[in-house]
Design brief:
Layout lengths: L14 H26 L2 H8 L2 H9 L2 H30 L4 H16 L2 H9 L1 H4 L10 H26 L2 H9 L4 H16 L1 H14 L15 H12 L3 H31 L1
Helix pairs in contact: 4-5, 4-8, 4-11, 4-12, 5-8, 6-8, 8-10, 8-11, 9-10, 11-13, 12-13
């Protein structure tokens, strides 16, 4: 008498369990890669070239504070100019007057298409084209104008999107109360638009902090060095990369809190919607 055994069907994994297994496999691969890298890296050479203790001390005592200050001053001035010009350009872009729109569009497309390095170089060479021309607060004024004009082209589009996100009903309500178009824009539209675009504007600020490293093209003196130029010159003296490493970490200490702030503001805006 023969007996037959029925095959027990395999239980399929749920999508959640399958995703968990894939994730654990990815973690394992990542951990393996980290272990392999840790075992193959020449740590003594890394320490000597990038984290030399004596070079770190020299970097902190040879003017790092001035370089950090210059980086922040360059960034702040360029951001203010970019914000003011960007707001004006955004309003011109939305204007019903054709020439205003054409000028704003040409400005935005032109300066968004040019590398910031070339714009800085152009402003640094203005005295050649216009003999006797002196930009106030040089070299700060030159950097503020160069980076600020480039930033204005990007901020203009961000602010324009914020203005268009404001409900038209609020503008109509303001006009029905007797406000002129200009007053309604200044008191009703712009405050709300700027509140909406604070996160992307903060991202622009972070980009400006990093773009300040392009100031080296102007051939500024030691008193005007920003972090990257300071790290490069000191690295040439010490024949190592430790000063540049310290400069890079300074950029991180400046930009990471801003990045965290952006994420929190974006999360808060999502909750409010």
């Amino acid at each position: 008498m023969s007996t037959t055994t029925e095959a027990v069907p395999k239980k399929k994994l749920s999508p959640r369990r399958r995703a968990q297994r894939i994730r654990w496999v990815q973690y394992a691969i990542l951990g393996l890669v980290v272990v392999v890298l840790a075992l193959t890296v020449n740590w003594s050479e890394v320490q000597r070239n990038f984290f030399d203790v004596e070079d770190i001390k020299l970097t902190f005592t040879s003017g790092l504070g001035t370089a950090v200050k210059n980086t922040l001053v360059y960034t702040a001035g360029a951001f203010v100019i970019g914000l003011v010009l960007g707001t004006v350009l955004a309003l011109m872009r939305l204007s019903s007057v054709g020439p205003y729109r054409w000028i704003a569009t040409a400005w935005i497309e032109f300066f968004r298409g040019l590398p910031a390095l070339l714009v800085l170089l152009a402003f640094g060479s203005l005295s050649i084209a216009f003999p006797g021309l002196i930009i106030p607060f040089d070299p700060y004024g030159t950097v503020w104008l160069g980076l600020g004009i480039v930033a204005s082209a990007y901020m203009a589009e961000t602010i324009r999107a914020g203005i268009q996100a404001v409900s038209k009903g609020q503008v109509e309500a303001a006009r029905s109360l007797g406000m002129t178009a200009g007053i309604a824009t200044r008191k009703i539209v712009l405050p709300q638009a700027l509140r909406i675009v604070i996160p992307p504007l903060t991202n622009e600020l972070i980009l400006l902090i990093k773009d300040s490293s392009l100031v080296f093209i102007l051939g500024i003196s030691a008193s005007g060095f920003e972090l990257t130029k300071y790290g490069r010159d000191l690295g040439n003296q010490t024949a190592g990369l430790t000063p540049l490493t310290v400069a890079g970490l300074c950029y991180l200490f400046i930009t990471l809190p801003l990045s965290i702030l952006v994420r929190r503001m974006e999360a808060r805006q999502k909750k409010e919607r």
